[in-house]
Design a protein that fits this description.
Elements (H helix, E strand, L loop, with lengths): L1 H9 L22 H16 L16 E7 L7 E7 L5 E2 L14 H6 L15 H10 L13 H6 L2 H6 L1
Antiparallel strand pairs: 1-2, 2-3
Amino acid sequence: MHLLTNLLEQRPDFDAGEYLQINQSNEQKLRHDTDAMCHEERVFATNAMSALTYCSKCTNSDHRLTPMTHVDKSSPSGRHLQYFCHTCSAIHCTLPLRSFDEFPVPDELFQNHILDPREARLTQHLTREDFDYWVRQLSHDKSPGDDELTYEMLQEAPAEMKDAL
């Protein structure tokens, strides 16, 4: 695995339609201790990667970024993570994070710890995409509120009902 990382760092140029196929026999898979450690580090780095990361070269944010361990015996730790972008083939030591969209609820509502149902709470229009996203995040098996609607009813509601809400 660390040898594959070294190959990708070389970034060989290929003509259109040309590709490199790499095979490894079952006997060779994770045979070397370095390969086993690289594999574990990649799994942990993949799970720890933020959903807001993106490639700074091509601004790709569709999560086609793969962590790879670079083994360097001359460095103090002997290894460090790099990230490979499958869209533009760039290799990064760090990945930037996109900023969060502005939160549509005014800060003063949280500072005062009082929510008056007669006051407007949103500072911008709630899009249908936002509504659908947040409805999908609602928990199942919860009791209905005063409106007698369960979260499951909202999640399975027809588009016309969601538009009315």
